[in-house]
Amino acid sequence: MVSHDNLLATAKGNIMRLEQANIKQPLTLRHCSFLPMTHIYERFILLGAFLRGTQVVFCPAPEQLVNYFAIVKPTQVSVVPRVLNKVYDMVMAEVNKSKVKRFLVQQALDSEESWFLSRLVFRRVKKLFGGEVQAMITAASPITSDVMHFFRIALDIPIMEGYGQTESAGAGTSTHPVDISYGTVGSPLPTVEIKLIDVPGTNYRSEINQGEVCIRGPNIFKGYYSDETKTREIIDKDGWLHTGDVGEWTNNGALRIIDRTKHIFKLSNGKYIAPERLEDVYIRSRWVAQIFVDGVSSQSTVVAVVIPDEEYVRNNFESTGTFVDFCKDHVIFMLKQINLEKLFATTSLISDVENVQGKDILSVQLCLSHNEDNNKTSNVEKEILINETETEMVVDLSDENEMYTSSNTIIDHDLNVYIYFLFIDIVFFYFVFFQQEHYLN
Q1: pTM (two decimals)
Q2: Which one has a higher pLDDT value, 192 or 124?
Q3: Which end of the chain is more exposed for a tag (fewer CB within 10 A), N or C?
Q4: How far does CA 112 lie from the centroid of its chain?
């Protein structure tokens, strides 16, 4: 039971965090709402928009989102990582068709101080979101560092990643607007308190800044309807909400989510396995759309059910057959493409872990079942893929290809313009230096 006061506390905390960006506010604030209002995330975003006197326009269908952004020109955008991933994949698929385009985009991403280069290459990417966005919030599931970096440079705006639960009315932490680090969910919102407590039976201890995340504040829900026992299990006598998430504090005071207390099991060799830590590493690979890691105490190894990212796979391979046939022929190769060394280098979550063996046909069969059932989860998968995360949001983007079709032509047009100006610069350089030397001689 989440009260209106709970949502107000979250909305106010979120507004206070946004104000820390010191952004000069336009006379009219605009928000385009397209996420499910059944989810706590969109609920407190909308309430915060109303508190600030923001104009709100509701987008009736995701496939119309780009058109609505162009009309509404939102000043703040609230998204889930899936939306950003789709835009990123579509843009990079077009960029990778040309070595010159790929070089220019990479230069723009590397040259963070080059205002001219970034503006020229990415100005049309900004127009995908209406062209007037001043801040962006992403929540509901983790976002990869490469996608976050791309949009921070391309949009040149603060992008904040948030963390919370329905039981906390969505409130918990949010990255500071000026924080450009990756892999964390930021510091506590001004309206909440957060502490880490020891997790029995594990090495997670508060004395080393690791432990279960507990939240307290006016945003904590009233309890589960007609279930006082379950409510007391999650809210202690001092008012702390025990989230079940395991986190750690970084040196700069930001929180990093590293595990779930309820999802730890022991193998036959005595090793404790935190499957979500493994899932968090593997899901960072662009080849992986979904992954579920599990194991039993009678075995010494873990297994993984992997569903490849169909669009990313097709963008990297020429295939005329169905995706099901492609999985049958290339699943082992795709597993090898998951560069574990690179993934591990970007996270401190895992110190040692064995590669998932590519010989287990289980993931292949589940992948085929997933696709043959019209891209809906089969009964077998429903039993295995019970809950990927406690805070995962499902956004219906069934027509998402239509939704982002314009991004291909947009980035193509802009890079062609940039190449044109680059050619002019080369000609100018030639005449100024070489021809001048010729006349002097």
Answers
A1: 0.68
A2: 192
A3: C
A4: 21
